[in-house]
Amino acid sequence: MSTVKIGNIDLGEMPLFLAPMEDVTDPPFRYLCKLFGADMMYTEFISSEGLIRDAAKSVKKLDFDESERPVGIQIFGHNIDSMVEAARYAEEAKPDLIDINFGCSVKKVVKKGAGAGILNDIPKMVKMTAAIVKAVRIPVTVKTRLGYDEEHKEIVEIAERLQDTGIAALTIHGRTRTMRYSTPADWTLIGEVKNNPRMHIPVIGNGDIVDPVSAKYFRDTFGVDGLMIGRAAYGNPWIFRDIKHYFVTGNLLPPAKIDERVSISLMHLERSVAWKGERTGILEIRKHWGHYFKGYPGFKPFRIRLMQAETTGEIKKILLEIRQHYQN
Question: Phi/psi at 203 (nearest 5 deg)?
């Protein structure tokens, strides 16, 4: 198996990508995923309009630590001029690449013709991509879906047209804009794109990679160059380590023990508070608590206390109680 390169970025064999997720993949969480073996990460997706208006929330999302590299900044929007300006703005933050979000299925984004909404206008999608590739000096990649809906699964043609604009890699989520997450991802068309003799850029598959076994199945069955993991990494940064171990040895690692869950939770808390300040850091990490300890019997009272805690000291005390409780 050959190594995968995006521009001059060498990602090794079968790299694992952390998907950009709004309000989840901030620098503290990305740091943990990197620690456990994520090969490439992206910022949360950033509104082009917010970026060029210098909106504080959008600009803050440009932050990343040198230890995260290689890292991409992902932008979305519906206006070509604004997207070009945002790409240039993002390039000044010195990421390794710019990623264009043509995959977000959130209604308010799609309604404006951004994210997966642009799949209703393929010529505009191609024109926007070409303009961004021309505007920046670093590699440009795209993340998109199979098509807008069941009647328009046009990804094989779209992939060729996007490649012709000069993008350096393509990530495909195996659903259309209208498919629900409860419907299994359809990887057959991702495989068709990868096996299209005209395609020469890396093709990364995304959708329903939930554990090492599913990762190996999608890798072996569809021949993609890399795998992107989204929701399965939430509260589970260990997934990158587990998948890599399984690829090499064929053996499954046991789930992370309570000691490791607590120590990683503490690290996440400390980095979150250091990055955002105590109040915001505590508020924004609350969404992670249930995921870190998912499946532990009788965890609900601890979760309620974690959700109500207002200081770093309180949370640390509860986390240590959790460790003691589940070790006994």
Answer: -115, 120
- DSSP SS3 for 72: strand
- Cα–Cα distance for residue pair 217/232, rounded to 1 Å: 16
Q: What is the mean pLDDT of residues 103-109?
A: 89
Classified by CATH at the fold level, domain 258-327 comes out as 1.10.1200
User: What sign has the CA pseudo-torsion 305, 307, 310, 311?
Assistant: positive
Known catalytic membership, residue 33: no
Domain edges within the chain:
5-249, 258-327
Cα–Cα distance measured from residue 129 to residue 164, given in angstroms and rounded to the nearest whole number? 10
- From 104, 128, 138, 179, active-site residue: 104
Q: Which two tokens stand for residue 113?
A: 């013709």
User: Using one digit for the tens of pLDDT, what is the confidence trace for 65-86?
Assistant: 899 999 999 999 999 999 999 9
- CATH class of the domain comprising 5-249: alpha beta
Tell me, yes or no, if the pTM score tops 0.90: yes
Q: Which of 122, 147, 130 has its CA nearest to residue 80?
A: 130
Among candidate residues 16, 24, 15, 67, the one with its CA nearest the CA of residue 292: 24
